[in-house]
Amino acid sequence: MGAGHGHGHGSASGRHRWRLAVAFGLVASFFGVELVVGLWSGSLALLSDAGHMAADVVALGAALAATRIATMKDRTGRKTFGSYRAEVFASGLTVLLMLGAGAYVAIEGIGRIGEPVELQTGAVMLVGAIGLLINVIALMLLRGGAGESLNVKGAYLEVVADTLGSVGVIAAGVMVALTNDGWWDTAIAMAIALFVVVRAVMLGREVLTVLGQHAPAGMDPAEVESVLTAVNGVAEVHDLHLWTLTSGMNVATAHLVAAPGASPDVVLGDARAALRQSYGVEHATLQVESDATACSELSW
Which domain holds residue 73? Predict the structure, then answer.
């Protein structure tokens, strides 16, 4: 019997914490300005963008807190996997915020149908332009970590939605100024809300995949079993489980039946190396057995 452990415990979002911190500072500093001008100007597009920015502030703050929680030392002795899932929960909160912001704008937009809308177009376009600049800077910061961390990706998608919102705000101001028809503001706000909801659903599916402990993307269980079976000295593989602890931290467990005469230690080392090289799995718990019939089947 043997257990192989790869201890690569550095989470992907932890490496990009500074990006989250800078983006949080930029977005939080501008949120109040956009909210005040949105209320004063009467622009639903600007208010929807302010709502998205409020979601950004909370999402970025939650993402920052999650990266800190994930690296905290367990003093209870009961958190055997640490607190890395905090980053996934933060992404889930981002999904709820995005859905809430989209629903709010949709409801407000429906309520405005048929009502006259007057806007301070100059102020709307100016604030929209400043918001666009801030969002673009935040996007450039977060893009570097979005491909590695679900936590950072959630914050990145929030800012993507808000960037589109800023573009929509500018477009609404221009169209209302050209046509003198406030309907453009409502229509663009509704389009922004739809985009935000679609992006939230996509991110939500990824979050549920992690929380449901599905096999990670790019790791087909049948293929992983084949890779392990191909290891010299492995006669059979069973009880294979694959899941994601948090972004960049995939985990595997399996029982390996060693062929007659094979060294359990050699089989263990080669199997761990195969998982690491083929799939980047740094934490694999493998049990080497000499007799498959001696392994009791799971009852669940």
Answer: 12-211
